[in-house]
Specification:
Elements lengths: L10 H12 L2 H13 L3 H29 L3 H8 L6 H33 L9 H12 L2 H20 L2 H28 L5 H9 L8 H14 L6 H6 L8 H29 L10 H12 L3 H35 L3 H21 L5 H4 L8 H38 L9 H26 L4
Helix pairs in contact: 1-8, 1-12, 1-14, 2-10, 2-12, 3-4, 3-10, 3-12, 3-17, 3-18, 4-5, 5-7, 5-14, 5-15, 5-17, 6-13, 7-8, 7-14, 7-15, 8-12, 8-14, 9-12, 10-18, 13-14, 14-15, 15-17, 17-18
């Protein structure tokens, strides 16, 4: 007899959990520096177009697959077409989730460490940017700190997952997401009251300059949309499998996309006015959070309090994402191998920790992991490129092709209509999942392969 599947207790619980999966370092760390490097408001507008057109389309496809099959990514493909090779698409998602969890938790550990660095005044009275770089370098090159924080963060993630879907994931995201939103709004208000330079920052962020738009801007905006929404690794298939048949899947997907985009936009509103008010470069790159913002907070009245709050915000955002990354693999072992939830969570957590150690040591603590032979890049960067860029993009493409062509849009729409008497955008969605989404994602893959650039 088949075990009854866990479900979300409420639609709000699902939306907060799924939005928590999507909301992470991609929104608060990655989105602002991508916006800064790509000219500001024009990039934001293009990004929003892709979230609506492509992000929502793939999100709904993944949720539909999950709810229809009531399975993890591997089980979902195997249930629809048993005995075929399509199950390997799901396997790619499970492997990608564990791999991303391993190096993502390293960066998440840095954010946790920075809570204490800011709170204890280590960035007070900084007069030279080289001092900030030195503090960061010494921090990430400390093997004890790097590996210890990695273990702590994965431990927190395992603790939430052991509690289960409703008592663990849903309960904690209902607590964490309102806190995250509250801290972000507090930082936003503070940023907008810094005086001189705020208007300039708002114009940069809100007034599009289309003369600055290049082909690369479009490609990176689409890549950011897919990355931000946690698509292509089976997280939304897994979360979708816990949705009741009575729920409206289209509105579920829409709410997650809206909430995720809202947090990214608010993060930009909090960061760019502060950067301009303090005379900082908005195109600070990946080091924006760890190298630029500590200086901004030091220059800001009450900066220690707001800087500490910001890194608490980042840590919460990262945790809501690592929860979903771990749940993908845990659901696989529960469904396909009949493991208990606790065993699956602990085993996968330990595996992710062991896999994450090379990434934690790759920032200077280990010469070998700091520059891998053949690829000539640190292990953390290599994992990000291989899984955060290529595997996610390939997974998203294969999911779109499976739903649009192999399983078929008619079957998918039948599932979507189960909790919804009508689907107003049915025709547009069917065209987008079959033609527009695959074409756009193929362009990203070609761009990555031909240019060797990482978005």
């Amino acid at each position: 007899m088949e075990k009854s599947r866990e479900q979300w207790h409420s639609k709000l619980g699902f939306v907060l959990a799924a939005a928590g999966s999507a909301i992470g370092l991609g929104n608060i760390w990655r989105f602002p520096y991508m916006t800064g490097q790509n000219g500001g408001a024009a990039f934001v507008l293009i990004y929003m177009i892709f979230v609506v057109l492509i992000g929502f389309t793939i999100m709904l496809a993944e949720l539909t697959l999950g709810r229809h099959t009531q399975r993890n990514p591997v089980g979902a493909f195997a249930k629809i077409f048993p005995g075929t090779q399509w199950k390997w698409v799901g396997a790619l998602g499970v492997v990608t989730g564990v791999a991303i969890l391993s190096f993502y938790s390293v960066i998440a550990g840095w954010t946790m460490g920075y809570i204490f660095k800011i709170a204890t005044g280590q960035f007070n009275n900084i007069t030279d940017s080289r001092q900030v770089e030195e503090i960061f370098s010494q921090f990430v090159q400390n093997p004890l700190a790097a590996v210890g924080l990695l273990a702590l963060f994965i431990g927190l993630t395992v603790g939430v997952i052991v509690g289960g879907v409703s008592a663990g994931i849903e309960r904690w995201t209902k607590i964490l997401m309102p806190i995250l939103l509250g801290i972000l709004l507090l930082l936003l208000v503070r940023s907008l009251t810094l005086g001189k330079g705020v208007v300039e920052g708002l114009l940069f962020y809100l007034k599009p300059n289309f003369h600055a738009v290049k082909i690369e801007t479009w490609v990176q905006a689409l890549g950011q949309a897919l990355f931000s929404l946690s698509l292509g690794m089976g997280a939304m298939i897994t979360y979708g499998s816990y949705i009741s048949k009575k729920e409206n899947l289209a509105t579920c997907a829409a709410y997650v996309c809206i909430f995720d985009t809202l947090i990214a936009l608010l993060a930009g509103l909090a960061i760019f006015p502060a950067l301009f008010a303090m005379g900082m470069d908005p195109a600070g790159g990946p080091g924006l959070v760890f190298l630029v913002l500590p200086v901004v907070f030091d220059m800001m009245p009450g900066g220690t309090i707001f800087g500490t709050a910001f890194f608490i915000l980042l840590t919460i955002a990262a945790l809501t994402s690592t929860i979903s990354l771990l749940e993908v693999a845990v659901a696989y072992f529960i469904d396909e191998r009949n493991w208990s939830r606790k065993t699956a969570a602990v085993v996968v957590g330990v595996l992710a920790f062991l896999l994450g150690i090379p990434s934690a040591l790759s920032q200077g603590a280990s010469t070998w992991f700091g520059c891998i032979p053949l690829v000539h890049m640190p292990f953390l960067d290599f994992m990000n490129v291989l899984f955060g860029n290529y595997a996610l993009t390939l997974g998203t493409l294969l999911i779109a092709l499976f739903v649009g062509w192999k399983w078929g849009t008619k079957n998918a729409v039948k599932e979507i209509l189960q909790g919804n008497s009508q689907f107003k955008f049915q025709s547009i969605w069917m065209i987008t999942i079959r033609f527009v989404a695959p074409a756009a994602i193929i362009i990203i893959l070609i761009y990555l392969i031909c240019t060797g650039k990482f978005f």
